[in-house]
Specification:
It is a single chain. With about 475 residues, this protein is mainly β. It is built from one helix and 35 strands. It folds into two domains: about 290 residues, Glycosyl hydrolase domain, family 43 (Tachylectin-2, Chain A), CATH 2.115.10.20; about 150 residues, Trefoil (Acidic Fibroblast Growth Factor, subunit A). Strands 1-5-4-3-2 form a five-stranded mixed beta sheet, with no helix packed on it. Strands 6-7-8-9 form a four-stranded antiparallel beta sheet, with no helix packed on it. The longest helix has 4 residues.
Length: about 475
């Protein structure tokens, strides 16, 4: 984060043509420069510039309450062993603060300010800038290398270089004699992650701290070494200003910055960021959590699920989720290949719900998979449900047959049916997570009598059921297509 106001920052009309994004997080998710989100004792935490931060029970509804000492800017947090390490910077940032700054690291046993084990210890300086050199030592972020357990810290802003130094994972102190390495320019608020032997450096480009006029966006380069060189998809080094776009302004949200990886396991990755301005919340800076997708070895921002009417298509078979009801033929009969030469050409209307619903049973109706034919028993309306909580980045949804209140529900036999009316019961609430390949995992909030999480799964070509999610298979991956 730097405190500077651009001479010219214009939102182009092109941004208004992008798909409208789902609403941001619930509650009061107001924060600037959020840290990586951490799960601690069943709650989610993130920390921001100026001290304090946000807490969430479920990753959807966020409110204040997180605490950290030191004030300063742009903190980050990481969990190693029985410690949560916190880093932040004091000083720097430009304007009145100049560019002289210290980066600190400290640790606590828990992030819960109400716990007797809460309290930050051993605050130490791990990096600094003197205000003259080509670096501004703020916006620090951790990386724990999964390959060898080494701990790294990136820091820096547009004023000079982004740098990386090595820390001791047992203490959080800088490794003696370790010298910073320059790895990028023309960005700030960097973060790193590792995937398939690649180190990815994500940096925030553009301008900040000017509300709806901010131009923040997140870009990425990658390297086979933690210290670089980090090249983008066109081979341009981030030390020369390179960086492939990951996410930019869209819908009513302006200036995404401060990437933080949230790996939920089983092929579900998300990322946190803040928007410089949520135009539906007085232009305030807000936290968001979005799906993280991967395409050709590069991270791509996904979008949280939005309400609408869809075909729910199995990735395994290509068949569509449908009610187990008798097939109703459309008008016109068998046509064959010969038609009267003078027959007028006219559109054939879609089959309407009113034409078929009278033949459906009044009680529970089963669910199966079949060829999609635009029929009413294959069209599902997905709608967010308020007041029932959620999960990281999203509320729970109800899934009903379009035009009706007939709702998809889990049963105590770990099967799926539809019930005549939605009641808001946990087995009728659905979690919809976009996976890293762009398909979706669909899970009920609860399955009666089954404490473990289960996912909607095509156990056969035509049979949906609820089983433990297998991230290595297509049987529990789904697509939502507009009919």
């Amino acid at each position: 984060m730097k405190f500077r106001v651009p001479v010219v920052t214009v939102l182009t009309i092109l941004s208004l043509r992008l798909p409208v994004q789902a609403a941001a997080l619930d509650g009061k998710p107001y924060i600037h420069d959020p840290s990586t989100i951490m799960l601690c004792d069943g709650k989610f935490y993130t920390f921001g510039t100026g001290g304090g931060g946000l807490i969430s029970e479920d990753g959807w509804t966020w409110n204040g309450g997180a605490e950290r000492p030191g004030g300063g800017v742009a903190p980050d947090v990481i969990h190693i062993g029985d410690r949560y390490y916190m880093t932040y910077a004091a000083g720097g940032g430009g304007l009145a603060g100049g560019h002289a700054s210290n980066v600190y690291v400290m640790w606590t046993k828990t992030l819960d300010p109400k716990s007797p084990d809460f309290g930050f210890n051993d605050k130490t300086v791990v990096a600094m800038s003197d205000g003259v050199e080509d670096c501004d030592a703020i916006d620090s972020a951790f990386l724990l290398d999964p390959a060898d357990g080494r701990l790294w810290l990136t820091y820096g802003t547009y004023f000079g270089f982004i740098r990386i130094v090595e820390l001791d994972p047992k203490t959080g102190h800088r490794v003696p004699g370790n010298q910073p390495v320059n790895i990028a320019i023309d960005c700030e608020a960097t973060a790193m992650m590792v995937r398939d032997g690649w180190y990815y450096l994500l940096g925030t480009h553009g301008t900040c701290c000017d509300g709806a006029n901010s131009t923040y966006n997140i870009r990425v380069g990658r390297s086979r070494k933690v210290t670089g060189p980090f090249l983008d998809n066109m081979g341009v080094d981030m030390l020369r200003g390179g960086g492939k776009l990951v996410v930019a302004a869209s819908g009513r949200f302006v200036g995404p910055g401060h990437f933080g990886l949230l790996d939920l396991g089983d092929g579900v990755q998300k990322f946190s960021c803040h928007y410089e301005a949520d135009l539906d919340r007085s232009g305030r800076s807000v936290l968001d959590i979005r799906p993280l997708l991967w395409k050709d070895g590069w991270p791509v921002a996904g979008d949280n699920f939005r309400e609408g009417t869809f075909e729910i298509q199995s990735e395994r078979s290509g068949y569509a989720l449908e009610l187990t009801v008798d097939f109703t033929r459309m008008a016109g009969g068998m046509r064959g290949f010969r038609r009267p030469p003078d027959e007028p050409v006219k559109p054939v209307p879609f089959q309407e719900l009113s034409e078929v619903i009278g033949g459906w049973p009044a009680g529970d109706i089963g669910v199966r998979l079949g060829d999609f034919m635009f029929r009413p028993h294959q069209k599902w309306t997905v709608t967010p449900v308020s007041g029932v909580g959620g999960y990281p980045g999203s509320p729970f949804f109800k899934i009903t047959i379009a035009g009706t209140d007939r709702a998809l529900a889990a049963t105590s036999d770990a099967e799926v049916i539809t019930v005549p009316a939605f009641t808001g019961a946990p087995e009728q609430l659905w979690r919809i997570d976009q996976l890293t390949d762009g398909t979706y995992r669909i899970m009920p909030k609860a399955v009666p009598g089954h404490p473990e999480p289960l996912a909607l799964t095509a156990v056969g070509a035509s049979t949906p059921s609820l089983v433990k999610f297998d991230p290595s298979s297509d049987i529990a991956r789904w697509n939502f297509r507009e009919p």
